[in-house]
Amino acid sequence: MVEFPRQKDAELYEAVGRFLADHKLGIEPGHYAFAYRVLVDPTGPLARSVADLTDGGVRLTAQDIVQLGGPAPTSAATPFDECESATSRPPSELIVQADAMIARAEMQVADFSQAVRSIHAETSGFGRDLAASAAAMRQAGPATDEVFRLTATMIDRANVAERRMAAAEQEAEALRSALDEARGTARLDPLTELANRRAFDEAYDAVPPGTPIALALCDIDHFKRVNDDFGHAVGDRVLRAVGLTIATESAGAVVARYGGEEFAILFIGVDIDAAVALVDRARSAVAARRFRSRKTDAPIGAITISGGVAAGTSDEPREALYARADAALYRAKAAGRNRAFSAA
After folding, report:
1. For residue range 294-336, what is the model confidence (pLDDT) as tens digits?
2. Per the domain annotation, does 336 fall within a domain?
3. Do residue 202 and residue 315 come from a single domain?
4. Going edge to edge, which strands form the sheet with 305-313?
5. Which one is catalytic: 84, 162, 249, 261?
């Protein structure tokens, strides 16, 4: 049995929470136990199997867990692989914690960089002063030869220190650039290269108060069938293609992969009728595409999306607008899919 220090226990606990949130798994003991087994041995066979199944950003399903030796869902829990419009979301606390970690790292790098620059300036000045003193000693005559030798040694050491400080300053700048890049990529979905949920929520919060907006949710119909029949690699390509199509047909709007096979669109300054028309245009464009398996050239079959649209103003909490759009999406699914409905 692996023993963890207290700090490691806390890190593992947070990692299990992120794992469950990322894969939209229900909060039940069996899922916690499965996540623990994956994370406690990240290079083991179970972790490698999970990595293969989820390569490219595909979420793990409850059925996958059963097939990998995990427990079957309890009757009190709804298996997410059977839900096409799940309402659970990753805890906002995890996003706050990630931002706080990046902010703390940036502050530490900034402090380190400032300290290095100060020391660099001091050592540079010290080296110049020593060099000037050595030149004066040399002119003073033989009596100062030993002092001159010691001073020359100090000059060499000062030069070495200055070179090291210069290298450290370059490293600090490289770290700063890496943090800037991390902050940017943390807001992109790696599979579709669209904005992720964090970036979408930030865009919503940045809209000036009182601005008319519409929020649309689009979900791929029967997406589980694609993964089951053709594999996750094909499912990934379908997700990318659908995301690109929605983004193309929603030019000017903020389009994000909000989780799993669900996409969110934020229309700013657009009324409900116009927003529904744009979502329906995206729906038609997706339905018109013909997908085939690259490996076998077999047709994948019709890929369609359903959409739900709600309108309001930016003063309304996004959770409320999201709930109304999600209800409209549910009605579109219940009415037969491959359609876009507005919120009642």
Report:
1. 777 778 888 999 999 999 999 999 999 999 999 999 999 999 9
2. yes
3. yes
4. 254-259, 262-268, 212-220, 305-313, 340-342
5. 261
